[in-house]
Amino acid sequence: MCEITCPDHRPQMASVRPNTFAAVKVEGATPTIETVTLDISAAKDITITATTPKVSAANSIATASKIVALGRGANDDELVAEARLIATRLGAAVGVSRPLTDRPDFTVEQQIGQSGTTVNPDFILNVGISGSVQYQIGMSNSHLIVSVNRDNQAPIMAQSDYTFTGDAKQFMQALKKAVQV
Question: What is the pTM for the complete model shown?
Answer without folding.
Answer: 0.71
